[in-house]
Specification:
The complex is a heterodimer.
Chain A: H1 2-20, H2 25-60, H3 69-90, H4 96-108, H5 110-120, H6 141-185
Chain B: H1 3-48
Classes of the chains: A mainly alpha, B mainly alpha.
Chain lengths: 186, 49
């Protein structure tokens, strides 16, 4: 759930980069930094889900993994964003950021599919706790409070590392621009 | 004593350890990257003077 927010920030950054890359290069760089930071932090949270989820699955279902709709779409989401990060890390040239932005938008299309997967396809995963019909929702108020504080705490932690990642990327962009300027002046 | 309680405890500990190893590992990687960039930037500034 928290990962979805960071993938949404990445999507906004990707769209912003494609919108501003021709007429506002400074805004495009800022958007690109948000796109990268959102994707990276989203992958971190998604990795935690994909590793700790099977721990719960082993206890609840007796199996570590099954190819049910929610698990498979989450794995696909993770793979798309890992390929986005690999593209950014290893591809070079002026088109890299544009290609990455397109891939980032493509990856974000999987987010609503992951969210809706256990509503559309009733496979191994349990019915959604929230928004899954009239009987859904957490009944115990103590559990609801624990859930709410957990979401808030992870959100705060995620925003902290997102801000740090954005700052590091902006610093990298400024450093790269300075190097390019020095090379032109030399 | 319910033996499943021990299993639950083990699984909970594993989940905490894995979660914080990933999150703090990422934070440490970011901090190292930031420090490396800062030192490289200051080295380049000194060289350009």
């Amino acid at each position: 759930m928290v990962a979805f927010l960071f993938f949404a920030i990445s999507l906004a950054g990707c769209i912003g980069y494609l919108a501003f890359r021709r007429n506002r290069p400074d805004w495009a760089q800022i958007s690109d930094a948000w796109a990268l930071a959102g994707a990276e932090v989203g992958v971190v949270f998604c990795t935690v889900v994909l590793i700790t989820g099977p721990l719960w699955g082993r206890r609840a279902w007796g199996i570590w993994w099954t190819w049910d709709a929610r698990l498979t779409t989450t794995l696909v989401l993770w793979l798309i964003y890992v390929s986005y990060l690999l593209l950014r890390r290893f591809a070079a040239g002026p088109q890299m950021q544009t290609l990455a932005a397109v891939l980032g938008i493509f990856g974000a299309l999987d987010v609503p599919i992951v969210y809706m997967s256990n509503r559309w396809w009733r496979t191994q995963h349990p019915a959604p706790v929230f928004g899954g019909g009239p009987d859904s929702g957490i009944k115990d108020p103590a559990m609801l409070a624990a859930f709410g504080w957990n979401v808030l705490a992870w959100l705060a932690w995620g925003i902290l590392i997102l801000a740090l990642r954005y700052h590091v990327e902006r610093q990298h962009q400024k450093f790269a621009a300075q190097e390019a300027q020095d090379a032109l002046n030399a | 004593m319910d033996p499943r309680a021990i299993l639950d405890h083990q699984f909970t500990v594993a989940a905490y350890v894995i979660t914080w190893a990933i999150q703090l590992g990422y934070l440490a990687w970011l901090a190292l990257k930031w420090r490396a960039q800062k030192s490289e930037a200051s080295r380049n500034t000194r060289n350009s003077r």
